[in-house]
Write a structure and sequence with these properties.
The structure holds two protein chains of two kinds. Chain A is an alpha+beta fold. Chain A has eight domains: 46 residues, no CATH class; 63 residues, ATP-grasp fold, A domain (Dna Ligase, domain 1), CATH 3.30.1490; 137 residues, 2-Layer Sandwich (D-amino Acid Aminotransferase, Chain A, domain 1); 115 residues, Carbamoyl-phosphate synthetase, large subunit oligomerisation domain (Carbamoyl Phosphate Synthetase, Chain A, domain 4); 135 residues, Rossmann fold (3-Layer(aba) Sandwich), CATH 3.40.50; 63 residues, 2-Layer Sandwich (Dna Ligase, domain 1); 122 residues, 2-Layer Sandwich (D-amino Acid Aminotransferase, Chain A, domain 1); 41 residues, no CATH class. Chain A contains 31 helices and 32 strands. The longest helix of chain A is centred in the middle third of the chain and has 19 residues. The two termini of chain A are 41 Å apart. By secondary structure, chain B is an alpha/beta fold. Chain B has two domains: 132 residues, Carbamoyl-phosphate synthase small subunit, N-terminal domain (Glucose Oxidase, domain 1); 205 residues, Rossmann fold (3-Layer(aba) Sandwich), CATH 3.40.50. Chain B has ten helices and 18 strands. In chain B, the strands form four sheets. Chain B has a ten-stranded mixed sheet, with helices on both faces. A four-stranded parallel sheet of chain B has the order 1-2-5-8, with helices on one face. In chain B, strands 3-6 form a two-stranded parallel sheet. In chain B, helix 6 links the parallel strand 10 and strand 11. The longest helix of chain B is centred in the last third of the chain and has 15 residues. The chains are: A alpha+beta, B alpha/beta. Chains A and B meet through helix 8 and helix 15 of A and helix 3, strand 14 and strand 15 of B.
C-alpha cells in the first residue's frame, strides 16, 4: 500500500525486480507514472518489459502535437487551428473555418481572455482583448464545435494486428459537456451506417498507427449537418468509458486486455458469455444503454453547477432498456436523487419562465434534462430546443414522447393499453401513482391484475444469436417473454450500493462483493446481486450466479423477488440505499437476512436509541427534536453553544450545520425547511474532542471488533472527511477498554447479526456514543485490509445464523505500527466550493498508507492523495478569528519555523511576533 | 423469416437483393432513428447513392421500437413513410429477442405477415395460404433480382463483367473505384456473350435463394473457371463457384446475418470482422473434390467463409467485402481481385 508515484514505484521495482510492467489499468495516474519511470531511465536500467502499448505510443496519444501529426499520417482528420497576431489575420482564418470559432489566448493562465466568436463583431472584440492579454501577443483561432456530436469508440487490438471495436457511445449533451459529465447512450443512435463505420475505421486506423496493444478509446466530434468529423483524443488505457463499454456489452475489456498484454491474440481468447465463440468479434446489443452521471452539488452550497469542459460528477449509473425512454427514466431513478423519473416527481418545482428555460438550455447544468422537458411543455419547438442546447432532435423527440405520455396519463383513465404504453416508456409505479393520486402499491396491484409485468432479459454480447451461458440480466417492459426460468429456489439476493457519490463509494462495493464471496464460501449456491453502477466489481456478471443490472428501487426489487423467489435479501452491505430499503422490503413480506429490521429501527430511531443507551448507562451528547425556534434557543442555551442542527428534510444546500451563536441559529431556521412534520434535531456539539470509529461484526452473542480507529481531526469533521489512524495514538488503555465494553454491550443489546459500526466521542475521558450503524461502514475495507481479517466475510457467516468465533487471534496483528486513511478532495474541479471541512462530507475518495511511525504513514498518505510535501518555502497560516485554535497551531508554527520555513499569517501578526 | 444483428444500416439491408423473398427482423430494438435518405439520388457512376438496389427488397420487416420521428442531415423521410411509399408491410412493438431465439432454436422458417384494415384476420386462412406457398428453398429468385438486359456502367478500357444474381450497388461501386468499367449481365447470360466483352475479370454477385437454383450461372462459372478467367465470387457467387467446381453447399440452420462476424484469413492468420448475409454455405469437406482450397473460415462455427482456387485465378468470399451495411475491414478483397486481373493482363495464361 504505497503512493503510485515515480519515487515509490521505483523503490518497489528496485526491490522486486519485476520482468514486466502493465500501465494501462490504473487510469491516468498509472499511465503518467509509467511515462515518468521511462523518462527517468528506470525501465531500461532494470530491463523491464512494458507489457501492452509501448511508452512511445503512450506519449503520442498523450501529447497534443504528436497526436495531431500521427492522425495526419494515418489519414484521420483533427481540429484545425491557427495562430494569429492581429484581427485582420484572425478574420481571414475565421472566414476560412466558418463561424463560430473559438479564440484561445496563447500563454495565459487558465485560458483567460478567450471565448467563442459567432460573428465578426464578436471576433473583433475577443481577438483584441486576447492579443493584449497574451504574453506573446498571439491568439489561436479554432473552429468551435460545441454543438457537434460527441462519439467514442472502444478499440481492442492485439500484437497480431487484429482490431475490433467493443462498442461506440454517443454523448447526448454533444461536445459542449465533458464526456465524464455527459449523459451517454450505447450504441450511438443518431448516426447512420456510413458514419458509424467511417468513424469505426478511423478509430482502428488510429489504433493501428499508434500501435496500441490492448485497449484504447478514440473520441470523435461529428458535424450535425454532414459526415465531417475530427478525432479529439485517444486514451491508450482502460478508462471510465471502457468500464462502461464492458458493462454495456458484456465484453470484459480489462480481462481481455490483460491477456493481450501477456501476448495472447484476440482469436485465441473465448467469449466468456457464450463459452463457445471467439473473443475476436464485435458485440451486438439488442437493448439500449444509458449512462447518467451523478453530481453531488448539494454538498457544496456555493459551487457552480454549470456543466462544461471540467468534469464535476462523482459517479454514474448505467441503465438498460428496450426503448430510449425506458433507459433514460430508469437511469434517473438509479441516481438516488429523489426522482422517480423525468416527469411526475413528487418534489419537482414547476419550471415555467421561458427566459430561464432558454438560458438553461444554452448553459446546461445538472438539471438540463428537466429543462428540456420544461421547454417541451412550454411548446418551444424541438428544433429551437436543439439549437439552444446542442442536443440532437432525436433525443428531444424521445423526451417529448415522455412529456406527451405524462399528459395522457394525467387525463385518461388507467386502462391496460395506456398502462402498457406508460411502462414501456419507463414510467415507474410511483410516477403513475402521482398522476392518478393513488398509492404506489395500488398501482402495482392494478398493474398485476391487468397482467402487465416486466420481463427478465439476458445480456449476451450477440443479440441472442448464440445461447448465453451466464446470467447477466436486466428487467424491461420491452418484451413478452423471460429469457429463462429460475429452476432452483432458495437464492439470496445481495443489494449493491448504486452510484458512487460523496459518502458512498467503492467501500460499499467492496462490501457487496465480499458478502457475495462470503455467502458462497459458506455454502450458498445461488447468490444474486442487484446493482446499477458500471464502475464496480459487484456488477461483473461472473462474481455471482445472477446479476441484475437494475434499479435499487422498491418496485424493481419486488419485480425481481417475484421472479427469483429468494429465501432472503441482504441489505447491510450496500450503504445508504440498501439500508433505507430494509423496512419497506420487510413490510412487503421479504425476509431480511441479517439483523432483525425491528432492531435496525431501534438503532435508527433517535428516541428509541437514546432510551436503550440510557438503559445501558452509556452517554450520548444531549439532543432534542424541535420544530420551533424558541424551544431550540432555550435548549441551545442550556447545553451551551456550539450545537449541531440536523434537519429531517433536505431540499438543497447543506443540510447539517454547526451553529455557534443565537443569531446563526435564527438564520438557520430561516433557511432550512422546518415544520412539525419536518423537525430539526439539535444536539450539543462537543468541541475539541476526539472521534473514534469502531467497526465490528456480531452474531448477536459473540462480537468481533475489527478495530478501534482514531480520527486525527477533531470531532465535528465528518467521519468521511477526517483523517484516521489505526491503532489509536491518543486514547489511553482505560478509554479503549471502555469503548470495547460499550461496543459489545450495544451490539448484544441490539441483537446485531452482521456488520456494524459505532461512532464515539471522547472528551476529557468521557465517552459518548454518537451513532450506531447496523450495516457495513465506509471504514470496513480499511480495517479489514490493515488487520488482515475480512469483516464482511465474517458477517456473511453471522447473517447465515452461524456463530462467530469468540476471539480471532490468527493473523490479525498488523505487521507495521501505523495505518492511516487520508481523504481525497476535488475542490479544484468545483468552481466556487467552500473548502472548509465540516459536518457534511465533501471528500470524493480516500487513500490508505502504512508506516512504522505515525508521521511516515501520514506523509505517504498525503503524497498518495496528491499533495506535494515541500522541503522549504513559505508557510501561510490562516488564523481562526475567534482564537479558539490559535494556541494549538502555535506549536506547528514554531516547528515549521524551526525547519526553515518563512511564516506568513493573516491578521494575528502581533500575536505571532509576540512568540 | 430471418434475423440480422447489425445495429445500423437498415436502409442498406432492406434494399439488399439477397433479402428478396424474406421477412427481416432486426435484433437491435430501435429502428428508424436516422430516417431514410433520398433513395433516388445517384452517384457519379449513375448508381443509387444511398441504397443497395433500386427498391426495398425485403418482403416485410419486424421491429421492436419504431422511430416515428427521425433526424439526420441526410434524411428526407421516416422509415414508416418509405415503407408506405414502396408498399412494403412492417410491424413494430414485437419482442424481437423472443422471435430471434425462436429462429435460433428452430431454424429459419416460412412466415406470413398480413396487413389488414379490419381486426378480423383469420389465422387459419393465413396458415392455409402459407402452406400453399412455394417454400423459400425451392424458389428461383433470379427473375426478380437479376437485370433483364446487359447494362454498361462507366466507359473504360478495363472492364469487369458482373453476373447479376442480385448484386448490391456497393460491389459495382468498389470495382469502379478501382478503375474498371462494369458490364452488368443477366444471371443466365451465355458464356460467349460474356467473353465477347473481353473482360479483365468476372464477378459473380451476391443474391437470394439456394445456389443450386442458379443452374445456368453454375454452368457459366464452370466454363469461366476452365478458361482461367479472373473471377471473384461474393456470397451467393462464392457458392455458385464452389458448385461449378464439384464442391457442395448446404443450408445453415439460421444463417449468418450480421456485421460482427469474425473470419480468419488462412494466408496470414489474421481475423477480420465482416459483414454477412447468407443462409447457405459451402461444405468444407467437399472442397477436396474441387480445385478450391480454404481461404477464410468463420472463427465461431468454423464454416467456410472464403475459397481460393489452387491453380486458377479465382477467389471467392462468403462475406461482403463491400460492407454496406457493415465494417470496411475486408475491402482489400477488391484489391486482391484487382491484382489478379492486372497480373492476368500483363501475363495472361
Amino acid at each position: 500500500m504505497l503512493p503510485v508515484t515515480t519515487e515509490y514505484v521505483n523503490h518497489v521495482i528496485e526491490k522486486e525486480r519485476p520482468d514486466g510492467l502493465m500501465l494501462g489499468f490504473g487510469g491516468q495516474t498509472a499511465l503518467n507514472c509509467g511515462v515518468n519511470l521511462s523518462d527517468c531511465g528506470s525501465i531500461t536500467k532494470y530491463g523491464i518489459n512494458v507489457l501492452g502499448t509501448e511508452i512511445n505510443s503512450i506519449k503520442i496519444s498523450e501529447d497534443r502535437q504528436l497526436f495531431k501529426e500521427a492522425m495526419v499520417n494515418c489519414d484521420v482528420p483533427t481540429l484545425e487551428s491557427e495562430a494569429v497576431k492581429s484581427f485582420s489575420e484572425a478574420k481571414i482564418v475565421a472566414n476560412r473555418l466558418n463561424y463560430p470559432v473559438i479564440v484561445r489566448v496563447a500563454y495565459t493562465l487558465g485560458g483567460r481572455g478567450g471565448g467563442v466568436a459567432r460573428n465578426e463583431i464578436e471576433l473583433y472584440e475577443i481577438v483584441n482583448r486576447g492579443i493584449s492579454a497574451s504574453m506573446v501577443g498571439q491568439v489561436l483561432i479554432e473552429k468551435y464545435i460545441g454543438d457537434w456530436k460527441q462519439i467514442e469508440y472502444e478499440i481492442m487490438r492485439d500484437s497480431n494486428k487484429n482490431s475490433i471495436t467493443i462498442c461506440n457511445m454517443e454523448n447526448i449533451l454533444a461536445m459542449k459537456v465533458h464526456t465524464g459529465d455527459n449523459i451517454v447512450v450505447a450504441p450511438s443512435q443518431t448516426i447512420d451506417n456510413y458514419e458509424y463505420h467511417l468513424l469505426r475505421s478511423a478509430a482502428i486506423r488510429a489504433a493501428d498507427y499508434v500501435n496500441i496493444i490492448g485497449e484504447c478509446n478514440v473520441q470523435f466530434a461529428v458535424d450535425t449537418q454532414s459526415s465531417k468529423y475530427v478525432a479529439i483524443e485517444m486514451n491508450p488505457r482502460l478508462s471510465r468509458s471502457s468500464a462502461l463499454a464492458s458493462k454495456a456489452t458484456g465484453y470484459p475489456i480489462a480481462y481481455m486486455s490483460a491477456k493481450i498484454n501477456l501476448g495472447y491474440s484476440l482469436d485465441e481468447l473465448r467469449n466468456n458469455i457464450t463459452k463457445k465463440t471467439t473473443a475476436c468479434f464485435e458485440p451486438s446489443l439488442d437493448y439500449i444503454v444509458c449512462k447518467h452521471p451523478r453530481w453531488d452539488f448539494n454538498k457544496f452550497e456555493f459551487a457552480s453547477r454549470k456543466l462544461g469542459t471540467t468534469m464535476k460528477s462523482t459517479g454514474e449509473v448505467m441503465s438498460i432498456g428496450r426503448t430510449f425512454e425506458e433507459a433514460l427514466q430508469k437511469a434517473i431513478r438509479m441516481l438516488d436523487i429523489n426522482k422517480d423519473g423525468l416527469v411526475l416527481n413528487k418534489y419537482d418545482k414547476e419550471i415555467d419562465d421561458e427566459e430561464d428555460i432558454e438560458n438553461h438550455l444554452i448553459n446546461p447544468d445538472n438539471l438540463i434534462l428537466y429543462y428540456i422537458a420544461a421547454a417541451i411543455k412550454k411548446q418551444i419547438p424541438v428544433d429551437r430546443i436543439s439549437k439552444l442546447s446542442s442536443v440532437d432532435p432525436w433525443f428531444i423527440n424521445k423526451i417529448k414522447n415522455i412529456v406527451e405520455l405524462e399528459n395522457e396519463l394525467n387525463q385518461c383513465k388507467l386502462e391496460a393499453q395506456l398502462l402498457k404504453k406508460v411502462k414501456k416508456l419507463g414510467f415507474s409505479d410511483k410516477q403513475i401513482s402521482k398522476a392518478k393520486n393513488i398509492e404506489e402499491h395500488e398501482v402495482r396491484q392494478i398493474r398485476k391484475r391487468m397482467g402487465i409485468l416486466p420481463v427478465i432479459k439476458q445480456i449476451d454480447t450477440l443479440s441472442a444469436e448464440w445461447p448465453a451461458q451466464t446470467n447477466y440480466l436486466y428487467v424491461t417492459y420491452g418484451g413478452d417473454a423471460n429469457d429463462f426460468q429460475i429452476k432452483s429456489t432458495g437464492s439470496i439476493i445481495v443489494l449493491g450500493a448504486g452510484p458512487y457519490r460523496i459518502g458512498s463509494s467503492v467501500e460499499f462495493d467492496w462490501g457487496t462483493v465480499n458478502m457475495v464471496f462470503g455467502l458462497q464460501e459458506n455454502g450458498e449456491k445461488n447468490v444474486s446481486v442487484i446493482n446499477c453502477n458500471p464502475e464496480t466489481v459487484s456488477t461483473d456478471y461472473d462474481i455471482c450466479q445472477r446479476l441484475y443490472f437494475e434499479e435499487l428501487t422498491l418496485e424493481r426489487i419486488l419485480d425481481i423477488v417475484e421472479f427469483e423467489k429468494p429465501k432472503g435479501i441482504v441489505t447491510s452491505v450496500g450503504g445508504q440505499i440498501a439500508n433505507n430499503l430494509t423496512s419497506a422490503l420487510h413490510k412487503n413480506g421479504i425476509n431480511i437476512i441479517g439483523t432483525d429490521p425491528i432492531n435496525i429501527d431501534k438503532a435508527e430511531d433517535r428516541s428509541k436509541f437514546s432510551n436503550i443507551l440510557d438503559k445501558l448507562n452509556i452517554s450520548q451528547p444531549k439532543w432534542k427534536k424541535f420544530s420551533d425556534l424558541k424551544g431550540s434557543i432555550e435548549f441551545a442555551k442550556s447545553v451551551k453553544y456550539p450545537i449541531i442542527a440536523r434537519p429531517s428534510y433536505v431540499l438543497s444546500g447543506a443540510s447539517m450545520k454547526v451553529v455557534w451563536t443565537e443569531s446563526d441559529l435564527q438564520k438557520y431556521f430561516e433557511q432550512a425547511v422546518i415544520s412539525s412534520d419536518r423537525p430539526v434535531v439539535i444536539s450539543k456539539y462537543i468541541s475539541n474532542a476526539l472521534e473514534v470509529d469502531v467497526d465490528g461484526v456480531s452474531d448477536t452473542k459473540n462480537v468481533i471488533i475489527g478495530a478501534i480507529i482514531e480520527h486525527i481531526d477533531n470531532a465535528g469533521i465528518h467521519s468521511g472527511d477526517a483523517m484516521m489512524c489505526m491503532p489509536p495514538r491518543r486514547l489511553d488503555k482505560k478509554v479503549i477498554e471502555k469503548i470495547i465494553q460499550h461496543t459489545k454491550s450495544i451490539a448484544r443489546e441490539f441483537k446485531v447479526r452482521g456488520p456494524f459500526n459505532i461512532q464515539f466521542i471522547v472528551a476529557d475521558k468521557s465517552i459518548y456514543v454518537i451513532e450506531l450503524n447496523v450495516r457495513a461502514s465506509r471504514s470496513m475495507p480499511f480495517v479489514s485490509k490493515l488487520k488482515n481479517i475480512n469483516l464482511v466475510k465474517l458477517a456473511s457467516r453471522a447473517i447465515l445464523n452461524k456463530s462467530l468465533p469468540e476471539m480471532i487471534h490468527k493473523n490479525t496483528k498488523m505487521n507495521f505500527k501505523f495505518g492511516v486513511k487520508i481523504p481525497q478532495f476535488s475542490f479544484m474541479q468545483l468552481d466556487g466550493a467552500d473548502i472548509a471541512l465540516g459536518v457534511e462530507m465533501q471528500s470524493t475518495g480516500e487513500v490508505a498508507c502504512l508506516g512504522n511511525d505515525f508521521h511516515d504513514a501520514v506523509a505517504k498518505g498525503l503524497i498518495a492523495s496528491g499533495y506535494r510535501l515541500p522541503k522549504k518555502g513559505c508557510a501561510i497560516v490562516i488564523m481562526d478569528y475567534n482564537n479558539i485554535n490559535n494556541n494549538k497551531i502555535l506549536k506547528s508554527i514554531i516547528t515549521l519555523h524551526g525547519i526553515g520555513f518563512k511564516i506568513l499569517t493573516t491578521k494575528m501578526i502581533m500575536f505571532i511576533n509576540h512568540f | 423469416m430471418v434475423f440480422n444483428t447489425g445495429m445500423v444500416g437498415y436502409p442498406e439491408s432492406m434494399t439488399d437483393p439477397s433479402y428478396n423473398g424474406q421477412i427481416l427482423t432486426f435484433t437491435y430494438p430501435l429502428i428508424g432513428n436516422y430516417g431514410v435518405p433520398d433513395v433516388s439520388q445517384r452517384d457519379e457512376y449513375g448508381i443509387e447513392k444511398y441504397i443497395e438496389s433500386d427498391r426495398i427488397q425485403v418482403s416485410g420487416i419486424v421491429i421492436h421500437d419504431l422511430s416515428l420521428v427521425s433526424n439526420h442531415w441526410n434524411s428526407i423521410m421516416t422509415l414508416d413513410e418509405w415503407l408506405y411509399k414502396e408498399q412494403i408491410p412492417g410491424m413494430y412493438d414485437i419482442d424481437t429477442r423472443k422471435l430471434t431465439k425462436k429462429l435460433r432454436e428452430e431454424g429459419v422458417m416460412m412466415c406470413a405477415l398480413i396487413v389488414s384494415d379490419s381486426d378480423n384476420i383469420s389465422t387459419q386462412e393465413v396458415q392455409m395460404k402459407l402452406k400453399r406457398t412455394e417454400i423459400y428453398n425451392q424458389r428461383n429468385f433470379m427473375d426478380r433480382v437479376s437485370t433483364r438486359k446487359t447494362q454498361r456502367l462507366g466507359a473504360n478500357s478495363k472492364n469487369v463483367v458482373v453476373i447479376d444474381t442480385g448484386t448490391k450497388n456497393s460491389i459495382l461501386r468498389n470495382i469502379m473505384n478501382a478503375g474498371y468499367g462494369i458490364i452488368k449481365m443477366p444471371w443466365n447470360t451465355k458464356i460467349d456473350d460474356i467473353l465477347s466483352y473481353k473482360p479483365d475479370g468476372v464477378i459473380i454477385s451476391n443474391g437470394p435463394g439456394d445456389p443450386k437454383m442458379c443452374v445456368d450461372t453454375i454452368k457459366t462459372a464452370n466454363i469461366l473457371l476452365e478458361c482461367n478467367m479472373p473471377i471473384l465470387g461474393i456470397c451467393l457467387g462464392a457458392q455458385i463457384l464452389a458448385l461449378a467446381d464439384d464442391a457442395k453447399t448446404y443450408k445453415l440452420k439460421y444463417g449468418h446475418r450480421s456485421q460482427n462476424k469474425p473470419c480468419i484469413n488462412i494466408d496470414n492468420s489474421r481475423t477480420y470482422i465482416t459483414s454477412q448475409n447468407h443462409g447457405y454455405c459451402i461444405d468444407s469437406d467437399s472442397l477436396k473434390n474441387s480445385g478450391f482450397k480454404l481461404w477464410f473460415i468463420n472463427a465461431d462455427d468454423k464454416t467456410v467463409e472464403g475459397i481460393k482456387h489452387k491453380k486458377n485465378k479465382s477467389i471467392a468470399v462468403q462475406f461482403h467485402p463491400e460492407a454496406a451495411p457493415g465494417p470496411y475491414d475486408c475491402k482489400y478483397i477488391f484489391d486482391s481481385f484487382k491484382k489478379i486481373m492486372e497480373e492476368n493482363r500483363t501475363c495472361p495464361k
